From TrEMBL:
Species of provenance: Gambusia affinis
Topology of this chain in the membrane: Single-pass type I membrane protein
Record has Glycoprotein as a keyword: yes
Name of protein: Fibronectin type-III domain-containing protein
Domain Fibronectin type-III: 238-335
GO molecular function, one term: cytokine receptor activity
Subcellular location per the Swiss-Prot or TrEMBL entry: Membrane
Amino acid sequence: MANKSNVLHSLMLIFITWRGSKRCCAMTVDPPEDLAVLDSGRLGQMQITWNPPGSLTKMTKCLPQYQLEYFNTYKNNWETLRTPMRTYSTQFDPSKDVHIRVYTILNGECTNNTMVMSKNCTETILKPPSTGVLDAEAEAFICVYHNMENLECSWTRSLKTPPSALQNLYFWHKSLDQAVECPSYLLSGGIRKGCNFPEKSLPEFTDIYFCVNGSSRDGPLKATFFSLQIQNQVKVTAPDKLHLQTSSDTELEFHWENPAGRLPAHCLEWEVRHRHVGADGKISLNHIHTEKPRLTLPFSNSSERNCFQVRSRLNSYCVDQSFWSDWSHETCHPDLENRESTLGPEMNFVSIYIYIAVVIIVILVVSLCVWAAVNMRKSGPQKKVDSLLPKLLTNNLTRRVSKIYSGKKICTDVVV
Ligand SMILES: *[C@@H]1O[C@H](CO)[C@@H](O)[C@H](O)[C@H]1NC(C)=O
Ligand SMILES: *[C@@H]1O[C@H](CO)[C@@H](O)[C@H](O)[C@H]1NC(C)=O
Ligand SMILES: *[C@@H]1O[C@H](CO)[C@@H](O)[C@H](O)[C@H]1NC(C)=O
Ligand SMILES: *[C@@H]1O[C@H](CO)[C@@H](O)[C@H](O)[C@H]1NC(C)=O
Protein backbone atom coordinates (compact mmCIF):
# COMPACT_ATOMS: atom_id res chain seq x y z
CA MET A 1 0.00 0.00 0.00
CA ALA A 2 2.75 2.41 1.03
CA ASN A 3 4.80 1.34 -1.99
CA LYS A 4 1.87 1.93 -4.31
CA SER A 5 1.29 5.45 -3.04
CA ASN A 6 5.02 6.15 -3.25
CA VAL A 7 5.07 5.08 -6.89
CA LEU A 8 1.97 7.17 -7.56
CA HIS A 9 3.58 10.09 -5.82
CA SER A 10 6.78 9.82 -7.93
CA LEU A 11 4.72 9.52 -11.13
CA MET A 12 2.79 12.62 -10.16
CA LEU A 13 6.01 14.53 -9.50
CA ILE A 14 7.45 13.46 -12.90
CA PHE A 15 4.23 14.53 -14.59
CA ILE A 16 4.21 17.91 -12.86
CA THR A 17 7.89 18.47 -13.71
CA TRP A 18 7.27 17.48 -17.34
CA ARG A 19 4.24 19.76 -17.65
CA GLY A 20 6.14 22.53 -15.91
CA SER A 21 9.16 22.22 -18.20
CA LYS A 22 6.99 21.99 -21.33
CA ARG A 23 4.61 24.85 -20.77
CA CYS A 24 6.49 27.03 -18.42
CA CYS A 25 10.00 26.82 -19.97
CA ALA A 26 12.56 27.42 -17.28
CA MET A 27 10.21 28.40 -14.47
CA THR A 28 11.67 27.08 -11.21
CA VAL A 29 11.07 27.77 -7.55
CA ASP A 30 13.28 27.39 -4.51
CA PRO A 31 12.41 25.23 -1.50
CA PRO A 32 11.20 26.90 1.73
CA GLU A 33 13.64 28.32 4.26
CA ASP A 34 14.06 28.37 8.06
CA LEU A 35 12.44 24.99 8.68
CA ALA A 36 12.08 24.58 12.45
CA VAL A 37 10.49 21.99 14.71
CA LEU A 38 9.28 23.02 18.15
CA ASP A 39 8.48 20.42 20.83
CA SER A 40 5.53 21.72 22.85
CA GLY A 41 6.15 19.32 25.77
CA ARG A 42 2.95 17.39 25.02
CA LEU A 43 4.44 13.92 24.58
CA GLY A 44 5.67 14.48 21.03
CA GLN A 45 3.24 17.11 19.79
CA MET A 46 5.52 19.16 17.49
CA GLN A 47 4.95 22.44 15.74
CA ILE A 48 6.67 22.58 12.34
CA THR A 49 7.28 26.09 10.90
CA TRP A 50 8.99 27.41 7.73
CA ASN A 51 9.27 30.56 5.61
CA PRO A 52 8.87 31.08 1.87
CA PRO A 53 12.14 31.13 -0.12
CA GLY A 54 13.83 34.56 -0.23
CA SER A 55 13.71 34.50 -4.04
CA LEU A 56 9.89 34.61 -3.89
CA THR A 57 9.49 37.85 -1.98
CA LYS A 58 9.45 39.96 -5.13
CA MET A 59 6.78 37.75 -6.70
CA THR A 60 3.31 39.04 -5.84
CA LYS A 61 1.22 37.52 -8.63
CA CYS A 62 0.59 34.25 -6.82
CA LEU A 63 0.71 32.98 -3.30
CA PRO A 64 2.99 30.04 -2.66
CA GLN A 65 1.70 26.76 -1.26
CA TYR A 66 3.73 24.10 0.48
CA GLN A 67 3.92 20.37 0.33
CA LEU A 68 4.77 18.87 3.70
CA GLU A 69 5.94 15.29 4.03
CA TYR A 70 6.71 13.60 7.34
CA PHE A 71 7.24 10.08 8.55
CA ASN A 72 4.41 9.01 10.86
CA THR A 73 6.19 6.88 13.46
CA TYR A 74 2.91 5.59 14.93
CA LYS A 75 1.53 4.41 11.54
CA ASN A 76 4.94 3.64 10.01
CA ASN A 77 4.28 5.48 6.76
CA TRP A 78 4.97 8.80 5.05
CA GLU A 79 2.16 11.35 5.23
CA THR A 80 1.86 14.03 2.52
CA LEU A 81 -0.27 17.15 2.68
CA ARG A 82 -0.50 20.56 0.99
CA THR A 83 -1.13 23.78 2.80
CA PRO A 84 -0.94 27.56 2.13
CA MET A 85 0.03 28.01 5.83
CA ARG A 86 3.57 28.24 7.14
CA THR A 87 2.98 26.04 10.14
CA TYR A 88 1.62 22.60 10.93
CA SER A 89 1.27 20.65 14.19
CA THR A 90 1.32 16.91 14.51
CA GLN A 91 2.28 14.14 16.90
CA PHE A 92 5.57 12.23 16.67
CA ASP A 93 6.99 9.43 18.72
CA PRO A 94 9.93 11.36 20.20
CA SER A 95 11.84 8.16 20.95
CA LYS A 96 12.28 7.70 17.16
CA ASP A 97 13.77 9.81 14.35
CA VAL A 98 11.52 12.72 13.35
CA HIS A 99 11.86 13.12 9.58
CA ILE A 100 10.30 16.17 7.82
CA ARG A 101 10.50 17.58 4.25
CA VAL A 102 8.87 20.70 2.79
CA TYR A 103 8.56 21.78 -0.88
CA THR A 104 7.34 25.08 -2.35
CA ILE A 105 4.53 24.99 -4.89
CA LEU A 106 3.52 27.81 -7.25
CA ASN A 107 0.32 27.84 -9.23
CA GLY A 108 -1.44 30.83 -10.77
CA GLU A 109 -0.85 33.77 -13.04
CA CYS A 110 2.87 33.83 -12.31
CA THR A 111 3.25 30.30 -13.74
CA ASN A 112 0.70 30.59 -16.57
CA ASN A 113 -1.67 28.51 -14.34
CA THR A 114 0.66 25.55 -14.30
CA MET A 115 1.70 24.01 -11.05
CA VAL A 116 5.41 24.24 -10.34
CA MET A 117 7.02 22.53 -7.40
CA SER A 118 10.52 23.09 -6.11
CA LYS A 119 12.84 20.33 -7.31
CA ASN A 120 14.61 20.26 -4.00
CA CYS A 121 13.07 20.24 -0.58
CA THR A 122 14.14 21.56 2.77
CA GLU A 123 14.39 18.72 5.21
CA THR A 124 15.27 17.98 8.77
CA ILE A 125 15.83 14.85 10.85
CA LEU A 126 15.59 15.10 14.64
CA LYS A 127 17.33 12.32 16.54
CA PRO A 128 15.84 11.21 19.87
CA PRO A 129 17.80 12.25 22.95
CA SER A 130 20.38 9.59 23.71
CA THR A 131 20.21 10.10 27.48
CA GLY A 132 18.89 7.47 29.85
CA VAL A 133 19.75 4.02 31.09
CA LEU A 134 20.07 1.80 28.00
CA ASP A 135 17.36 -0.81 27.35
CA ALA A 136 15.55 0.12 30.57
CA GLU A 137 12.35 1.28 28.94
CA ALA A 138 8.89 -0.09 29.74
CA GLU A 139 7.82 -3.16 27.74
CA ALA A 140 4.61 -4.92 26.75
CA PHE A 141 2.49 -1.82 27.19
CA ILE A 142 -1.21 -2.63 26.87
CA CYS A 143 -4.46 -0.82 27.68
CA VAL A 144 -7.78 -2.57 28.26
CA TYR A 145 -11.06 -0.64 28.37
CA HIS A 146 -13.08 -2.90 30.67
CA ASN A 147 -16.73 -3.05 29.52
CA MET A 148 -16.30 0.55 28.24
CA GLU A 149 -16.18 1.71 31.84
CA ASN A 150 -12.65 2.09 33.14
CA LEU A 151 -9.39 1.96 31.23
CA GLU A 152 -6.47 0.03 32.69
CA CYS A 153 -3.00 0.30 31.17
CA SER A 154 -0.12 -1.90 32.24
CA TRP A 155 3.48 -2.56 31.31
CA THR A 156 6.39 -4.69 32.43
CA ARG A 157 9.91 -3.72 33.41
CA SER A 158 12.72 -4.80 31.18
CA LEU A 159 15.40 -7.02 32.69
CA LYS A 160 17.84 -4.11 32.64
CA THR A 161 15.62 -1.72 34.59
CA PRO A 162 17.52 -0.85 37.79
CA PRO A 163 15.69 -2.10 40.90
CA SER A 164 15.74 1.43 42.33
CA ALA A 165 13.83 2.82 39.34
CA LEU A 166 10.57 4.71 39.77
CA GLN A 167 8.45 4.70 36.61
CA ASN A 168 5.82 7.30 35.71
CA LEU A 169 3.01 7.28 33.20
CA TYR A 170 1.94 10.51 31.51
CA PHE A 171 -0.85 10.97 28.98
CA TRP A 172 -2.04 13.69 26.66
CA HIS A 173 -4.86 14.26 24.15
CA LYS A 174 -5.92 17.32 22.22
CA SER A 175 -8.29 18.68 24.89
CA LEU A 176 -5.49 18.92 27.46
CA ASP A 177 -3.08 21.85 27.78
CA GLN A 178 -0.24 19.74 29.09
CA ALA A 179 0.66 16.11 29.67
CA VAL A 180 -0.98 14.78 32.86
CA GLU A 181 0.34 12.09 35.20
CA CYS A 182 -1.54 8.85 35.89
CA PRO A 183 -4.47 9.45 38.32
CA SER A 184 -4.08 6.10 40.10
CA TYR A 185 -1.11 3.74 39.77
CA LEU A 186 -1.50 -0.04 39.98
CA LEU A 187 1.15 -1.57 42.17
CA SER A 188 2.55 -5.06 42.26
CA GLY A 189 4.97 -5.82 45.07
CA GLY A 190 5.33 -2.08 45.68
CA ILE A 191 6.39 -1.47 42.05
CA ARG A 192 4.34 0.57 39.59
CA LYS A 193 3.01 -1.83 36.95
CA GLY A 194 0.04 0.05 35.54
CA CYS A 195 -2.45 2.85 35.73
CA ASN A 196 -6.20 2.92 36.22
CA PHE A 197 -8.33 5.66 34.66
CA PRO A 198 -11.76 6.09 36.24
CA GLU A 199 -14.92 6.07 34.13
CA LYS A 200 -15.24 8.85 31.53
CA SER A 201 -11.82 10.36 32.30
CA LEU A 202 -10.63 9.83 28.70
CA PRO A 203 -12.48 10.66 25.46
CA GLU A 204 -13.36 7.98 22.89
CA PHE A 205 -12.55 8.34 19.17
CA THR A 206 -9.59 10.59 20.05
CA ASP A 207 -5.90 9.74 19.81
CA ILE A 208 -4.49 9.40 23.31
CA TYR A 209 -0.71 9.53 23.73
CA PHE A 210 1.03 7.79 26.59
CA CYS A 211 4.58 8.04 27.82
CA VAL A 212 6.27 5.81 30.38
CA ASN A 213 9.46 7.39 31.68
CA GLY A 214 11.23 7.20 34.99
CA SER A 215 14.25 7.88 37.07
CA SER A 216 16.73 5.71 38.91
CA ARG A 217 19.99 6.05 40.83
CA ASP A 218 21.80 5.22 37.57
CA GLY A 219 20.05 8.10 35.77
CA PRO A 220 16.80 8.66 33.90
CA LEU A 221 15.13 5.73 32.12
CA LYS A 222 14.60 5.93 28.38
CA ALA A 223 11.03 7.08 27.76
CA THR A 224 8.65 5.01 25.61
CA PHE A 225 5.61 6.36 23.79
CA PHE A 226 2.32 4.78 22.75
CA SER A 227 -0.76 6.02 20.97
CA LEU A 228 -4.26 4.54 20.85
CA GLN A 229 -7.98 5.28 20.80
CA ILE A 230 -9.70 3.73 23.77
CA GLN A 231 -12.79 2.40 21.95
CA ASN A 232 -10.42 -0.01 20.17
CA GLN A 233 -9.27 -1.53 23.49
CA VAL A 234 -12.62 -2.77 24.83
CA LYS A 235 -12.82 -6.04 26.73
CA VAL A 236 -16.42 -6.93 27.44
CA THR A 237 -17.47 -8.69 30.67
CA ALA A 238 -18.35 -12.33 29.98
CA PRO A 239 -22.07 -13.11 29.38
CA ASP A 240 -23.55 -14.24 32.70
CA LYS A 241 -27.22 -15.15 32.19
CA LEU A 242 -27.26 -18.37 30.19
CA HIS A 243 -30.55 -20.14 29.45
CA LEU A 244 -30.60 -23.57 27.91
CA GLN A 245 -33.79 -25.51 27.25
CA THR A 246 -35.39 -27.91 24.79
CA SER A 247 -37.99 -26.23 22.64
CA SER A 248 -39.20 -29.53 21.18
CA ASP A 249 -38.04 -33.15 21.10
CA THR A 250 -35.55 -32.33 18.40
CA GLU A 251 -34.31 -28.82 19.22
CA LEU A 252 -32.13 -27.31 21.86
CA GLU A 253 -32.48 -23.58 22.45
CA PHE A 254 -29.64 -21.57 23.95
CA HIS A 255 -29.82 -17.87 24.68
CA TRP A 256 -27.80 -15.55 26.92
CA GLU A 257 -27.33 -11.96 28.05
CA ASN A 258 -24.37 -9.72 28.63
CA PRO A 259 -24.28 -7.98 32.00
CA ALA A 260 -26.03 -4.61 31.85
CA GLY A 261 -23.71 -1.72 31.12
CA ARG A 262 -23.13 1.01 28.57
CA LEU A 263 -22.24 -1.39 25.74
CA PRO A 264 -24.34 -0.74 22.61
CA ALA A 265 -26.24 -4.01 22.00
CA HIS A 266 -25.92 -3.76 18.20
CA CYS A 267 -22.11 -3.72 18.52
CA LEU A 268 -21.80 -7.11 20.22
CA GLU A 269 -20.89 -10.44 18.67
CA TRP A 270 -20.37 -13.82 20.30
CA GLU A 271 -18.56 -17.09 20.05
CA VAL A 272 -20.18 -20.22 21.48
CA ARG A 273 -18.08 -23.21 22.50
CA HIS A 274 -20.22 -26.31 22.14
CA ARG A 275 -19.07 -29.50 23.81
CA HIS A 276 -21.07 -32.53 22.75
CA VAL A 277 -20.79 -35.81 24.64
CA GLY A 278 -22.38 -38.59 22.64
CA ALA A 279 -24.15 -41.61 24.06
CA ASP A 280 -20.95 -43.57 23.47
CA GLY A 281 -18.94 -41.04 25.55
CA LYS A 282 -17.28 -39.50 22.52
CA ILE A 283 -16.57 -35.80 22.99
CA SER A 284 -16.62 -33.33 20.09
CA LEU A 285 -15.84 -29.62 20.34
CA ASN A 286 -17.35 -27.01 18.05
CA HIS A 287 -17.04 -23.21 17.91
CA ILE A 288 -19.96 -21.22 16.54
CA HIS A 289 -19.79 -17.54 15.66
CA THR A 290 -23.01 -15.55 16.01
CA GLU A 291 -24.22 -11.96 15.81
CA LYS A 292 -27.36 -12.66 17.84
CA PRO A 293 -27.43 -13.76 21.50
CA ARG A 294 -29.20 -17.04 20.75
CA LEU A 295 -28.75 -20.37 19.01
CA THR A 296 -31.02 -23.23 18.09
CA LEU A 297 -29.38 -26.61 17.65
CA PRO A 298 -30.81 -29.96 16.61
CA PHE A 299 -30.52 -32.67 19.21
CA SER A 300 -31.58 -36.22 18.81
CA ASN A 301 -30.69 -38.62 21.56
CA SER A 302 -31.75 -38.15 25.14
CA SER A 303 -28.68 -40.00 26.37
CA GLU A 304 -26.36 -37.37 24.87
CA ARG A 305 -25.14 -34.28 26.69
CA ASN A 306 -24.57 -30.77 25.28
CA CYS A 307 -22.52 -28.19 27.12
CA PHE A 308 -22.07 -24.53 26.19
CA GLN A 309 -19.86 -21.60 27.05
CA VAL A 310 -20.03 -18.22 25.39
CA ARG A 311 -17.77 -15.18 25.09
CA SER A 312 -18.33 -11.76 23.59
CA ARG A 313 -16.62 -8.82 21.94
CA LEU A 314 -17.43 -5.66 19.98
CA ASN A 315 -17.86 -6.21 16.25
CA SER A 316 -15.87 -4.56 13.48
CA TYR A 317 -18.83 -2.39 12.39
CA CYS A 318 -18.46 -0.39 15.60
CA VAL A 319 -14.72 -0.41 16.38
CA ASP A 320 -11.48 -1.24 14.57
CA GLN A 321 -10.56 -3.96 17.05
CA SER A 322 -11.53 -5.33 20.45
CA PHE A 323 -10.54 -8.07 22.89
CA TRP A 324 -12.58 -11.21 23.50
CA SER A 325 -14.22 -11.39 26.92
CA ASP A 326 -13.40 -14.30 29.21
CA TRP A 327 -15.49 -17.43 28.67
CA SER A 328 -18.76 -17.56 30.61
CA HIS A 329 -19.41 -20.43 33.02
CA GLU A 330 -20.57 -23.66 31.38
CA THR A 331 -24.18 -24.68 31.09
CA CYS A 332 -25.25 -28.20 30.08
CA HIS A 333 -28.27 -30.17 28.99
CA PRO A 334 -29.10 -32.32 30.86
CA ASP A 335 -27.72 -30.20 33.68
CA LEU A 336 -27.73 -32.70 36.59
CA GLU A 337 -23.98 -32.96 36.95
CA ASN A 338 -23.67 -29.22 36.63
CA ARG A 339 -26.08 -28.48 39.46
CA GLU A 340 -24.31 -30.88 41.84
CA SER A 341 -20.91 -29.48 41.04
CA THR A 342 -21.99 -25.84 41.35
CA LEU A 343 -23.87 -26.32 44.63
CA GLY A 344 -21.06 -28.28 46.23
CA PRO A 345 -21.34 -30.77 49.12
CA GLU A 346 -21.64 -28.08 51.87
CA MET A 347 -24.61 -26.48 50.13
CA ASN A 348 -26.34 -29.88 49.93
CA PHE A 349 -25.89 -30.45 53.69
CA VAL A 350 -27.24 -27.02 54.51
CA SER A 351 -30.37 -27.58 52.41
CA ILE A 352 -30.96 -31.01 54.02
CA TYR A 353 -30.84 -29.38 57.49
CA ILE A 354 -33.31 -26.74 56.37
CA TYR A 355 -35.71 -29.40 55.03
CA ILE A 356 -35.54 -31.35 58.32
CA ALA A 357 -36.21 -28.20 60.36
CA VAL A 358 -39.20 -27.27 58.19
CA VAL A 359 -40.68 -30.79 58.49
CA ILE A 360 -40.33 -30.76 62.31
CA ILE A 361 -42.02 -27.35 62.57
CA VAL A 362 -44.91 -28.45 60.33
CA ILE A 363 -45.44 -31.62 62.41
CA LEU A 364 -45.45 -29.60 65.65
CA VAL A 365 -47.95 -27.04 64.32
CA VAL A 366 -50.28 -29.73 62.97
CA SER A 367 -50.25 -31.68 66.25
CA LEU A 368 -50.93 -28.49 68.25
CA CYS A 369 -53.86 -27.71 65.99
CA VAL A 370 -55.29 -31.20 66.38
CA TRP A 371 -54.89 -31.05 70.16
CA ALA A 372 -56.53 -27.63 70.31
CA ALA A 373 -59.42 -28.77 68.11
CA VAL A 374 -60.10 -31.76 70.36
CA ASN A 375 -60.08 -29.48 73.46
CA MET A 376 -62.51 -27.06 71.78
CA ARG A 377 -65.01 -29.78 71.00
CA LYS A 378 -64.93 -30.92 74.64
CA SER A 379 -65.52 -27.46 76.11
CA GLY A 380 -68.43 -26.54 73.78
CA PRO A 381 -68.61 -26.99 70.04
CA GLN A 382 -71.43 -24.40 69.49
CA LYS A 383 -69.39 -21.47 70.73
CA LYS A 384 -67.62 -19.47 68.13
CA VAL A 385 -63.91 -19.06 68.44
CA ASP A 386 -64.09 -15.29 68.07
CA SER A 387 -66.47 -14.88 71.00
CA LEU A 388 -64.53 -17.39 73.07
CA LEU A 389 -61.19 -15.74 72.59
CA PRO A 390 -61.80 -12.40 74.46
CA LYS A 391 -63.31 -14.33 77.38
CA LEU A 392 -60.30 -16.54 77.62
CA LEU A 393 -58.01 -13.55 77.50
CA THR A 394 -59.86 -11.75 80.31
CA ASN A 395 -59.62 -14.86 82.48
CA ASN A 396 -56.38 -15.37 84.32
CA LEU A 397 -55.11 -17.92 81.89
CA THR A 398 -51.46 -18.47 81.22
CA ARG A 399 -49.88 -17.12 78.07
CA ARG A 400 -49.33 -20.61 76.86
CA VAL A 401 -53.06 -21.31 76.68
CA SER A 402 -53.81 -18.10 74.79
CA LYS A 403 -51.18 -19.03 72.30
CA ILE A 404 -52.82 -22.38 71.74
CA TYR A 405 -56.18 -20.71 71.06
CA SER A 406 -54.76 -18.29 68.63
CA GLY A 407 -53.27 -21.28 66.88
CA LYS A 408 -56.70 -22.87 66.86
CA LYS A 409 -58.18 -19.79 65.27
CA ILE A 410 -55.89 -20.13 62.34
CA CYS A 411 -56.72 -23.82 62.03
CA THR A 412 -60.50 -23.31 61.87
CA ASP A 413 -60.02 -20.59 59.27
CA VAL A 414 -58.08 -22.98 57.16
CA VAL A 415 -60.57 -25.79 57.62
CA VAL A 416 -63.59 -23.54 56.81
C1 LIG B 1 2.93 32.38 -20.44
O1 LIG B 1 2.52 31.94 -21.71
C2 LIG B 1 2.66 32.94 -22.71
C3 LIG B 1 2.14 32.37 -24.06
O2 LIG B 1 1.70 31.06 -23.96
C4 LIG B 1 4.13 33.34 -22.83
O3 LIG B 1 4.24 34.36 -23.82
C5 LIG B 1 4.63 33.82 -21.50
O4 LIG B 1 5.99 34.12 -21.54
C6 LIG B 1 4.38 32.79 -20.43
N1 LIG B 1 4.76 33.32 -19.16
C7 LIG B 1 5.64 32.73 -18.32
C8 LIG B 1 5.87 33.40 -17.00
O5 LIG B 1 6.19 31.69 -18.61
C1 LIG C 1 19.20 20.83 -5.33
O1 LIG C 1 20.16 20.29 -4.47
C2 LIG C 1 21.32 19.83 -5.13
C3 LIG C 1 22.24 19.18 -4.13
O2 LIG C 1 21.69 19.11 -2.89
C4 LIG C 1 22.00 21.02 -5.83
O3 LIG C 1 23.16 20.55 -6.52
C5 LIG C 1 21.05 21.65 -6.79
O4 LIG C 1 21.62 22.80 -7.33
C6 LIG C 1 19.76 22.02 -6.07
N1 LIG C 1 18.80 22.51 -7.05
C7 LIG C 1 18.11 23.65 -6.88
C8 LIG C 1 17.16 23.98 -7.98
O5 LIG C 1 18.22 24.34 -5.91
C1 LIG D 1 8.42 12.24 32.26
O1 LIG D 1 7.63 12.94 31.30
C2 LIG D 1 6.91 14.04 31.80
C3 LIG D 1 6.05 14.58 30.67
O2 LIG D 1 6.78 14.93 29.55
C4 LIG D 1 7.84 15.07 32.37
O3 LIG D 1 7.12 16.15 32.91
C5 LIG D 1 8.67 14.42 33.46
O4 LIG D 1 9.63 15.33 33.96
C6 LIG D 1 9.40 13.18 32.93
N1 LIG D 1 10.03 12.51 34.06
C7 LIG D 1 11.26 12.02 33.98
C8 LIG D 1 11.79 11.37 35.19
O5 LIG D 1 11.92 12.08 32.96
C1 LIG E 1 -29.71 -43.17 21.69
O1 LIG E 1 -28.48 -43.82 21.38
C2 LIG E 1 -28.32 -45.08 21.98
C3 LIG E 1 -26.93 -45.60 21.64
O2 LIG E 1 -26.40 -45.02 20.53
C4 LIG E 1 -29.43 -46.02 21.41
O3 LIG E 1 -29.30 -47.26 22.02
C5 LIG E 1 -30.78 -45.42 21.74
O4 LIG E 1 -31.80 -46.18 21.16
C6 LIG E 1 -30.88 -43.97 21.21
N1 LIG E 1 -32.10 -43.39 21.69
C7 LIG E 1 -32.88 -42.59 20.93
C8 LIG E 1 -34.07 -42.02 21.60
O5 LIG E 1 -32.62 -42.33 19.75
